[in-house]
Amino acid sequence: MDPEGGGEEASGNAGTKMLRNSLFLMASAGLTAGIGFIFWAVVAHLYSSTQIGLATTLLSAISLISFLSTFGFGQTMIRFQAEGPARHRQVSVMLALVAGASFVLGTGYVLIVKVISPDLAFVRDKPLYSVVLIVICVFATVNLVTDSVFLSARRAEYNTLVDGVIQSVSKLAVPMFVVGMGAMGIVAASGIGYVVATLASIYFMYRKLGFRFSFHLGGTRIRETAGYSVATQFSSLLNLIPQLALPIITLRWLGPDNVTYYYLGSQIAALLSTGSYAIGSALFSEGAHDPEQLRSLMKRSATIMTAVMVPGVAAVILVREPLLGLFGSKYPGHAQGLLTVLALGALAVAFHTWASSALRITGRMKPLLGSNLVYMVATLALALGFAHRGLNWIGWSWALGNLASGLFAVAFVPGAKLAALAEGDAEYDDYYDELEPEEDLAPAGQRIPAGVGAAAPSGGPRDRPTPRPRQSPWVGVGDSTAITEPMFFPWNSREQRGRSDRFDAYERQRSRPPQPTGGLRMRPRSMPRQAGPVVPPPSALEETQILRPIVVPDSFFRPEPEDRDPRAQRPGAGEADERWRPPEQ
User: Fold this and answer.
1) How far is CA 316 from CA 165, 331, 341, 349, in A?
2) Can you give the pTM of this predicted structure?
C-alpha cells in the first residue's frame, strides 16, 4: 500500500471520529442545557427566591471543589494513556485520588462555611446536611473524571448518554419530593443526578470498555506525568479567574442591576461556546491518540469550528432582541448591546480553544500557561480600565482577552516547531554526509579490536556510521519511553536476543585471523562504549615472541683453578707418592 495513501486514509478516519465525537459532545451540552432549563423552571415554582439563591451558592461551591479536586487528571488521562492492564490501575488510582481530595476539601468547606457565609450555617448545624454535601462533592468530582475516561477511549456517545440524559433526567424528577429540605432540597436533587451519573459511568466502563478496578501503582505513570497535570490544572485556574472577577468588577463600577444583565448575557454566550469547547475536546482526544495526524486534525477542526460557530453567532445576533425578551421586557433595552459583543467574543473563544488544544497535545505547557496568563491579565486590565464607560466595555474586555490569548498560543502551535525540527534534521543528516571516510589515528594495518563483540577492523576505509534513531517530537512531558528502552549493545540486537550472546561474541573474536598490536584507533560517535577491558586476540599472544635477558650468576665466570698436588689434600700421603707427576699437557 502507498504510504501516503495510507496516511490520508488514517487522517480521514481520525477526522471522521473527531467530527463524530464533537457532535456527541455538543449534543450532551445541548441536552444538559435544555433539561437544566426545565429543572430550574420547576424549582422556581416550588421554592422561594431566597432558597434558590442559597442553593445556587452551595452548587457553585460544589463546582469549585470538584474542579480543584481533579488535579488535572482528566486531561492527563487523555494525553498519557497507560497500556494494557496498567490502564486499569491508572484509572482506578486517579479516581481514588480525586475522590479523596474532594472528600478533604468538602469537609474543610463544611467546617468553615459559617465563617464564609453565615446564611449557610444550616449546613454545619445539621450533620445530615453536612454528610449530604460532602458526598455530593465526591460524586461530582468522580463524574468529571469518568467523562475523561470515555473521551480518552473516543466513545463520546457515553458522555451524551450519561451526562445529557441520565444525569439530567434523574435530577429533574427529585425536586418535588424534597421541598421540605428547603435550599438543601435543590442541592440534594442535583446531587442525585451526580450519584446516578457516576454509577452509570462505572457500569458502562465495566461493560463496554472492559474496565476493572486495580489499585496497584505499577505502570500508572502518575509520578511521571505529575508536571503535566499540575500545569494543566494551574492553566485552567488562570482561565477561571476572569470569569469569577468580571461580575465583581461590574458590581463595583456599574451596580447590581448591570450584574444581572451581564450574568444573563454571559450565560447565553457560554451556551454558544459549548460548540467550540466540544470540538476542542474532540481534537484533544484524537490528537492524543494519533499525534502524527495533528496537522490534518487541526485543519479539520478549524473547518468544523468555523462551520458551527459563524452561523451560531450570526443567529444569536439576529434574534438577540426576542431572545432577551423571553426573560423580561427590560432586558432587550439594557443587554442587547452586551449580547452582541459577547456573541462576537465567542469567535475569539473558539480561536483560543483551538490553539490551546494543540498546545496540550504536544505537551507545550509553558506556552499554555503563558496564553492563559495573557488572557487573565489582558481581560482584567481592560475591564478595570474601561468599566466606567459602560457594560459593553466589560464584554469587549472578555472578547479581546480571549483574542490576545489565542494569538499568543498560536505562535507556539507545532507548525513553526515542525519547521524548526525539519531544519534540525537536515543539519543532523548533513553532519554524516560531511564525515571523512577515515578518521583513525593509526594505519589500517595496526588497528586492534575495540573489545569483546566488536567488529573486526577492515583494511579499507571505515564505513559511514548508521544515523541514530531520532526521538519523535510528539513525546510529551514525563514520557518514560527513553528510560525503559534497552540500551544498544551488539548482544542486545533483535536477532541475538535469547542466546548466550557474550559467549558467542567471544568465540567469534577467537576465530579471527591474528591482528598486529599497537597503534590507537578513535571510537566513532555511532559506536557505544563497550563494557569490559580491551583484550587482544589470544592468537596474537601465541605468535608473539617475547625476548627476555638471561640472568647468569657471577660464579659462572670464575677462573679455572691452578694445578696442584692432590697429595697435599689427601691425609696420610707419604714418600711413596713422590714419583707422581702431573699429566702431560
Assistant:
1) 26, 15, 11, 16
2) 0.64
